[in-house]
Amino acid sequence: MDLNNLTIEAARSAVQDRTTTAVALAEEHYARIQKEDGQIGAFLTLSKERALEQADRMDFMAAEGKPLPPLGGVPVGIKDVMSTRGVRTTAGSKILDKYVPPCDCTAVTRMEAAGAVVLGKMNCDEFAMGSSNENSAFRPVRNPRDLNRVPGGSSGGSAAAVAADMAVVTLGSDTGGSVRQPASFCGVVGLMPTYGRVSRYGLIAFASSLDHIGPLAKTVKDAAIVLRTIAGRDPMDSTSADVPVPDYVAELDKPVRGLKLGVAKEYFGEGLDDEVRHAVEGAIDKFNSLGCEIVPVSLPHTPYAVPTYYLIATAEASSNLARYDGVRYSHRARGAKTLSDMYRRSRDQGFGAEVKRRIMLGTYALSAGYYDAYYLKAQKVRTLLTRDFDEAFRKVDAIVTPTSPTAAFRLGEKSNDPLAMYLADIYTVTASLAGIPGISVPCGETREKLPIGLQILGKHFGEATILRVAHAYEQAA
Ligand code: GLN
Hints:
This protein has a domain at 3-251: Amidase signature (AS) domain (Amidase signature (AS) enzymes, Alpha-Beta Complex), CATH 3.90.1300. It is built from 15 helices and eleven strands. It has helices spanning 8-16, 22-40, 48-63, 106-113, 156-163, 180-186, 220-230, 274-289, 305-320, 339-350, 353-366, 372-392, 418-423, 429-434, 463-476, and strands spanning 43-46, 75-79, 117-122, 169-174, 189-192, 212-217, 260-264, 293-297, 398-402, 438-445, 451-458. It has an eleven-stranded mixed beta sheet, sandwiched between helices. A hairpin with a 5-residue loop joins strand 10 (438-445) and strand 11 (451-458). Helix 9 (305-320) packs across helix 11 (353-366). The chain is globular, with a radius of gyration of 21 Å. It binds glutamine. The site of glutamine has 13 residues, from loops.
């Protein structure tokens, strides 16, 4: 079976009609991982036993002529920030090097209930902090399109595996761009749903008011199938929304003619690479020719988004990461003399440089005397950013922007300059702060054949619309 261009439906129907078996499909993917992943580094842990058991179950159903569930026999990968019962889950950190969770993340449970075959756990930046996957404590991931370049981050392994046909789809997490940006760098589709759309039970927390789980896929339709599978209320996550889940797949083919698409000048300013600008402008022309109305909108607080995000995200991270103290679950340093010495040494040995930087930034921002000036102020600006979008969405159905100001950069190019790395998150952190959904869809290439991503942002719980717009573009492009 040709692994290239294997979509969810192609894989599922091949298993259903016995053209292949789910076991053979899993084995072929493992063979591909064996061959390619030494260079790329997308997987941290393989869950072969679990995968083959599930594949067997799907083959049994198919052999009995029973209809397979929507992801029946489809090989998938899970970012290593999502708990998998009995399968090591590290969050890309040495501090969780040996952590084997006692339960599954709800999104994983739902994927498996829909028949997905979990091949393994995907490499990522440590605790999802990063934009290049160079902050993984284990190894960086290389971009399959150019091995000297980063795949983006923090869901770099999830994006690279889909791009290199080592999984049909993967789950990633997005706090400030970590699904959308690596999708754009690797030339795949990446969707961040509305805050609360997908349960985060079992997700290792980075910044709880910003964390989202979302799919990385080869096609918009595959992203829609996965979202339909994982979305919806979960009693185990009180922040998951009790909002009905539409049939995202059925809505994909509705015409886009007459839709109003916003274009904000704040997303086309200084720092935007010319080739990216050109590609995104080309996409806007394409929407015009599809009968969409292009409407200028203004998102005036955009310049404050990066500092706001890096205050709130680090503050929440400093609080969330306090639990890794060497007592339970996480790495414990040897040779400590006292309890506080044990805490200190365990955290010092277990966390990498970027995670430590963020814990210090966040602790500072929350400390007495600075709270009002930093954290509280940032929350107020967050409200203004959200209002910008509310205002814009009174006039338009979706907003189109570049996903990232540049295509994939070289390994090492920004790793010694955290500020440059943070600033490149400019187009993705706004939606995260506002809690609205966003999707990145491939939109051409640079002269050097590096993928470019087009971002489409929607209203709260407006995933059906952005998926439809992305699908129309994908079909037309
Ligand atoms: N690049 C951003 C950061 O480093 C976003 C990460 C994410 O979305 N998890 O925080």
